[in-house]
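Late entry, evening session. Most of the bench is empty. Finally got around to the prediction I had been postponing all week. Sequence below, unchanged from the version circulated by S.P.
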Amino acid sequence: MEDLYIQELQPQVSIEELLLEENKKELLVNFIKEHKHAKHLIKLGLPVSNTLLLHGHTGCGKTFTARILASELKKRLLIVNLSNIVSSKLGDTAKNI
């Protein structure tokens, strides 16, 4: 498994460091708040979103945004090299995941 990921991080960055349109930044802040208060929301019977899709061209800030989310939520971050996961051999991709 060691060769499947590039790095494992405990990021220490703040959302204040992210340059983003205000409405998009607000969505991220709300996502973070939702996860910080997940136990309380679940107790109230409210759903907690557990997925976030970051997409865009190379260099647009997807990984940096993921670092910020991991830092704010006090989670570790695994940065995976997709070319080491996906295989043309039947069954190898599922095994690698």
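Two things to note before I forget:
The beta strands are 5-9, 77-80.
The chain has a mean pLDDT of 82.
Will write this up properly tomorrow.
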